[in-house]
Design brief:
Elements (H helix, E strand, L loop, with lengths): L7 E2 L2 E5 L13 H15 L2 E5 L5 H14 L8 E3 L2 H12 L6 H8 L10 E3 L3 H6 L7 E5 L9 H8 L6 E4 L8 H6 L4 E4 L2 E4 L3 E4 L9 H8 L2 E3 L3 E5 L3 H15 L2 E3 L10
Parallel strand pairs: 1-11, 2-12, 3-6, 3-7, 4-5, 4-6, 7-10, 12-13
Antiparallel strand pairs: 8-9
Helix pairs in contact: 1-2
Keywords: Hydrolase
GO molecular function: hydrolase activity; RNA endonuclease activity
Protein name: MBL fold hydrolase
Length: 268
């Protein structure tokens, strides 16, 4: 999709702070990072599990995978999008090319369906989903929920987290208390469907695919204002991330900030 629009004139700004305390890998390195991780995971001979949000994250991932596949840089293996919602959303993406960025528009005008490529299979029904189990690894499974707090990804995690040959690749933010967060932080075992599952697979993360801007991107966005806002309210972030971003913007840009408490009401 198109890049974030500049701010213009702003008096008071509500700014997300999900990744206000860190810097992602460069977006230009995204495909290279994906290729490296996927190639290593496929070489191990196990399943590659990617919990992904159905809206935008799955489509961004497919866009990168199609690019790699076209360039012959993707390992030969089946890739499954095992999410009915993601499948529906992908169809919607194809219907509105006017929202694509320049690179995607160019591909579209050339007749390139960059959300579909050889060996990619959409598994919509439960029966189709179950048949993934019959496919020998290596294979890639993209499924929701993105934080692993539900959805079909749990069935695959139940099956493959204990497999040392398999890999879990986290491509989005994992909230505190979510299964994805526990795995990201190195849990040795997790409970799924009432069973205690030992975590023996490799767990990796890619920041370059996140829909949330890192500290640099958020500061750049604030800097697009034609007149600096009088105050910034930092929302949608854990306290340490919001505090880090507020401090950095105050230090570098001289703009006062405020971090609301949960459920706090503020009159502007």
């Amino acid at each position: 999709l198109k890049d974030t629009q500049p701010l213009g004139d702003v008096d008071v700004l509500l700014c997300e702070s999900t990744y206000g305390d860190r810097i992602h890998e460069a977006s230009t390195m995204r495909d290279e990072i994906i290729q490296k991780l996927v190639t290593e995971a496929a070489h191990n001979g196990g399943a590659i599990m990617i919990p992904a949000f159905s809206i935008e994250r799955t489509q961004e991932l497919l866009y990168s995978l199609e690019t790699l596949a076209t360039e012959g840089k993707l390992p030969q293996m089946p890739i499954f999008v095992d999410s009915p919602l993601a499948i529906k959303v992908t169809k919607v993406f194809k219907e509105f090319p006017e929202y694509y960025d320049k690179e995607a528009c160019k591909k579209y005008m050339q007749g390139n369906d960059f959300l579909q490529f050889p060996r990619l299979e959409m598994t919509n029904t439960k029966e189709e989903s179950k048949k993934i189990n019959d496919i020998n690894p290596p294979k890639m499974i993209i499924a929701g929920a993105g934080m692993m707090n539900g959805g079909r990804i749990l069935h695959h995690a139940h099956r493959y987290l204990s497999d040392p040959k398999s890999t879990l690749i986290i491509v989005g933010y994992q909230a505190q208390g979510s299964l994805g967060r526990r795995l990201y932080e190195g849990a040795e075992s997790v409970k799924i469907f009432g069973d205690e599952i030992p975590v023996r697979c490799t767990v990796k993360a890619i920041g370059a695919l996140s829909a949330h801007g890192d500290q640099h991107k958020l500061m750049s966005w604030v800097g697009t204002a034609t007149q600096a806002p009088k105050k910034i309210y930092y929302v949608h972030g854990e306290p340490h991330a919001a505090t880090a971003l507020a401090h950095k913007i105050k230090q570098d840009m001289g703009i006062s900030g405020f971090i609301p408490e949960y459920a706090e009401t503020i009159e502007v």
